[in-house]
């Protein structure tokens, strides 16, 4: 594990939070959710264990904090691809492919949105950050649908699209992908064509 200590100034709460999230992300990438130990996060961020707990009450909240940051990054990567797309297939392919890469490291570790709906589980600031992050992603994808000519209520359309994207990511990052033997590119093209026609954007 990288234990180099960041040169964060004392009293810089925002940067200290970033240091904690980065340390947590490194642990998650290296060993998954079971490797996310608060003491190791403290070591990686160059702070005391007690300081970590002033930001995140437990590892579940820390994971959601890291997950939300990943959603923000996903949105930033997708935005230029989607804004430059001229057809639904390009939008769907970009969203599905980017999400699959993130899902390898984070999606299978924890049911983040399920945890959000368990009353009292998340700290208010952590929950709000997750809501803002996912809301930003949905807004970008929803705007792309409208730009491509979708005229219906975007909410059920987004539920359908996101369920498909997450389901494909789950399928193609596990051994289940070998059962049917359909290559990723072929399945994405098929799903984009079917969804695009059903939504009236192809």
Automatic annotation (TrEMBL):
Segments traversing the membrane: none
Pfam families: TetR_N
DNA-binding region per Swiss-Prot/TrEMBL record: 37-56
Secretion signal span: none
Domain of life assignment: Bacteria
Keywords annotated in UniProt: DNA-binding, Transcription, Transcription regulation
Domain HTH tetR-type intervals: 14-74
SUPFAM superfamilies the record matches: Homeodomain-like
MF GO annotations: DNA-binding transcription factor activity; transcription cis-regulatory region binding
Protein name, as recorded: TetR family transcriptional regulator
Organism of provenance: Tsukamurella pseudospumae
